[in-house]
Design a protein that fits this description.
The chain is of the alpha+beta class. Among the domains are: 239 residues, Beta-galactosidase, Chain A, domain 5, CATH 2.70.98.10; 205 residues, alpha-1,2-mannosidase (Glutathione S-transferase Yfyf (Class Pi), Chain A, domain 2, Up-down Bundle). Helix content is 28%, strand content 23%. It contains 19 helices and 37 strands. The strands form 11 sheets. Strands 6, 8, 9, 10, 11, 12, 13, 14, 15, 16, 17 and 18 form a 12-stranded antiparallel sheet that branches. A 6-stranded mixed sheet has the order 19-32-33-37-34-35. It has a 3-stranded antiparallel sheet with strand order 30-31-36. Strand 34 and strand 35 form a beta hairpin.
Length: 756
């Protein structure tokens, strides 16, 4: 009897376990995305929880400063630029309408944000909201719980609105003569549509058109209307096109269907890279980071046409999607290189779009910060050339290389190099051409050059280092085009970083126009706000390593392999040299610090990989994994700086996979330390590239040995060609470093030199 009971008990527990296993929710890729990561900023701009489809025109997020904000300002309808405020606004309301403003600030609760879905309670007013986006249209469900008359207040911050029954159409003015249009309708006919009647406190329904700043309409609905369904389309062409976009994408008021479509699209997109392993938190960080890289650029083609702010005209896209909204200073380093692997057709279309923008501009200079409203010419250097050179070196052919070279060259040689300026080249640019470096102001010298931005300053070291790299990229393209003389010219100029290298201190040091190093000078703190009188956003410790095209030469300038490693270590160990409040008051972008290293800003992203160039890749493995653990976490402050629409999180994607594109323009990747047991990248045509870890454990960060496609691999890098052939990089991992692996001189990653 006892044996029978034991058998019955075992059977019962087995059945329970089987039941539990079969009812465990299986996570899909999109379920790992946590849009709240980074919603509280360390110092500057938070990472917003964007609801959108990959690279789509329509993007929204709650209108608030950051996650700690106590209120949200209405409901968003479209964000027209990354980190920008919403164009238009929708404010549901119940109660005395005379007390409602054009945009209502709500206390809120029970918020849920997915890439494809938004849900929130506006608890001050007893209102619950659901939302789902499509590519150029969106849908809201708004539920009212109070026994009060429901209203919707529809606002444009600067534009015109027209009402007709249950529809509103109109536009909002943006900068540079650009407009965003909207067509909006509800499933229920409103009783009245109008503006506030200041005399009665009710609605003046006589006006069917309202315009100007904060122009708005109030839509009054029957008191028994407990749910209002609203859908809308957006356009940069016209209100009529906005309606067409809506009709094409959302045929009825089925929000669940739109959300499910969005979920499926995200799963397919994120599924281009499949990771596995026991570290669930790492998967959340990974897929959230990958989702961030799809926020920009955005496709603004609408039924085969697009509006271009570059000439103010509507163009046919001639069968190719047209993209804009890109901050290349941030994205050329890793976001564009990531797309070359997993979205090569899209990347080709994006480069083609850059070329089209240039055709439409008054001055044919490759854009470097193209936005919906035009090229804002922010930051320094003209790294569009790096985007082109890298794509071509890695096999992309879907753009006109000759034209790309022409407009990239013009951006570097005809436009001023002064940061944040769209003016033509002037006296400083002639100095750079003649002397090979961008001059700093001497101590006490006043700025008189009109091209120099009053706030952004000259940034002479950042401009010099950025431009010599751009000239190296030009030399690569010129060589491909058979322009040997021009290739040699720009190749030689790309060595001009030597002109601003202080051999005594072994730092890049600003020089005045008389070729004197500016003195006194503190590499950790000099240069004014953001270091802009010398560097840009970061200090001399970070810009010390900003020669991505010739790390081998930089290593020799530092004194050789051992000195190079010692100086890297010294940077991570150096104190800020000031109280934190003092340091960050001057360098608010220089966040995510480990010593003087800044994980929170893009110019530092390649630095942890530089140990490989001195034959000590184990230090890169240690450093990269520590930085990921320290600064990229599954929490509200889990991004250490301005994320810039994939600019920073692309570092995470590459680093968690186990390699990084240190030098865009050289078709190779430097090996780091993979986080997952297995990662598979879809590289198209039914092929994949896998990184597989043997002896896997989340704590095993050190490579013991490696094989590439079954062959022993004792190099700390591999080529893009090897990746695109498909196959497997197999790494045996361990808890302690193997300091011999990839340590020989012939194992280090390649660099440019005058001899190859």
């Amino acid at each position: 009897m006892t044996k029978n009971l034991t058998k019955i008990s075992l059977l019962f527990f087995c059945l329970i376990n089987i039941y539990q296993c079969t009812n465990v929710e299986v996570k899909e890729h999109v379920d790992y995305v946590n849009p709240y990561i980074g919603n509280i900023s360390h110092l500057l701009v938070p990472t917003y929880p964007t609801v959108h489809l990959p690279n789509s025109m329509l993007r929204v997020y709650p209108e608030r400063d950051n996650y700690t904000s106590n209120t949200i300002a209405g409901l968003p309808l479209i964000v027209t630029s990354h980190r920008g405020s919403s164009a238009f606004n929708l404010s549901p309301y119940q109660g005395d309408i005379s007390k409602a403003t054009g945009v209502i600030r709500y206390g809120y609760d029970n918020e849920v944000i997915k890439p494809y879905y938004y849900n929130v309670d506006l608890d001050d007013y007893g209102i619950s909201v659901q939302y789902a986006p499509s590519h150029q249209s969106g849908i809201y469900y708004i539920d009212f719980s109070l026994q009060e008359t429901p209203y919707l207040i529809f606002n444009t911050r600067n534009g015109e609105l027209n009402s007709d029954g249950n529809t509103i159409r109109g536009y909002q003015r943006l900068s540079n003569n650009t407009r965003v249009y909207i067509y909006f309708e509800t499933d229920i006919e409103p009783i009245e549509v109008g503006i506030h009647d200041t005399q009665t406190g009710g609605i003046n329904a006589d006006k069917k058109m309202t315009e100007g700043y904060n122009a708005y309409f109030i839509l009054k609905y029957p008191e028994n209307a407990k749910q209002i369904k609203a859908r809308y389309g957006v356009s940069f062409i016209s209100a009529e096109q906005a309606e067409k976009n809506l009709r094409r994408e959302i045929q009825d008021y089925d929000l669940e269907q739109i959300a499910q479509k969005g979920r499926n699209i995200w799963n397919e997109t994120l599924g281009k890279i499949v990771v596995s392993g026991s570290d669930e938190t790492a998967k959340t960080v990974f897929y959230t980071s990958l989702y961030r890289t799809y926020e920009r650029m955005i496709c603004i083609s609408e039924d085969g046409n697009y509006f271009s702010a570059y000439d103010g005209k509507v163009h046919s896209d001639e069968g190719r999607p047209f993209y804009t909204d890109d901050w290349i200073w941030d994205t050329y380093r890793a976001t564009h290189p990531l797309r070359i692997i997993v979205e090569p057709e899209m990347e080709s279309d994006m480069i083609h779009s850059h070329i089209l923008m240039t055709r439409q501009m008054k001055d044919a200079w490759m854009p470097n910060f193209p936005e919906v409203t035009g090229d804002s010419r922010r930051m320094n250097s003209n790294h569009g050339v790096a985007m082109v050179a890298d794509a071509y070196a890695k096999g992309l052919r879907g753009f006109d290389l000759e034209e790309a070279y022409k407009v990239c060259k013009a951006a570097i040689t005809e436009k001023t190099l002064a940061p944040w300026s769209a003016k033509k080249a002037g006296v400083l640019d002639q100095f750079y051409k003649d002397h090979g470096y961008f001059p700093a102001l001497a101590p006490g010298e006043q700025e008189t050059v009109p091209e120099v931005h009053s706030w952004e300053k000259r940034q002479p070291i950042a401009v010099t280092l950025g431009t010599v790299y751009d000239e190296w990229c030009l030399s690569l393209i010129a060589k491909e085009l058979g322009k040997a003389d021009e290739s040699d010219y720009f190749s030689n100029r790309s060595l001009n970083y030597h002109k601003v290298f202080n051999t005594d201190t072994r730092f890049f040091h600003p020089k005045d126009s008389n070729e004197n190093f500016v003195q006194p000078f503190d590499y950790g703190f000099s240069g004014g706000l953001g270091g802009r009188e010398a560097y840009d956003e970061n200090n001399g410790w970070v810009y010390r390593w900003d020669v991505p095209h010739n790390i081998d030469d930089l290593k020799e300038m530092m004194g050789g392999k051992e000195a190079f490693v010692n100086e890297l270590e010294r940077m991570y160990n150096a104190s800020l040299g000031r109280a934190r409040y003092d340091f960050y008051n001057t360098f608010p972008d220089h966040t995510g610090n480990v010593g003087q290293f800044s994980m929170g800003n893009e110019p530092a992203m390649h630095i942890p990989y530089l140990y490989n160039y001195s034959g000590q890749p184990w230090r890169t493995q240690k450093r990269v994994r520590n930085l990921l653990d320290q600064w990229f976490r599954n929490d509200l402050m889990g991004i250490p700086g301005d994320e810039d629409g994939g600019g920073l999180t692309s570092f995470v994607v590459f680093s968690q996979l186990g390699f990084y594109p240190v030098t865009p323009g050289l078709p190779m990747y430097v090996i780091g330390s993979p986080v997952f047991e297995r990662a598979r990248m879809d590289i198209g045509n039914g092929r994949s590239f896998e990184v597989v870890c043997r002896n896997y454990s989340p704590e095993h960060k050190y490579i013991q040995s490696a094989k590439l496609n079954g062959k022993e691999w004792n190099k700390s890098w591999f080529s893009h060609n090897e990746l695109m052939k498909g196959g497997t990089l197999e790494l045996v991992m361990g808890k302690h470093p193997n300091k011999q692996w990839a340590s020989s001189d012939d194992a280090v990653p390649p660099s440019f030199s005058m001899n190859n």
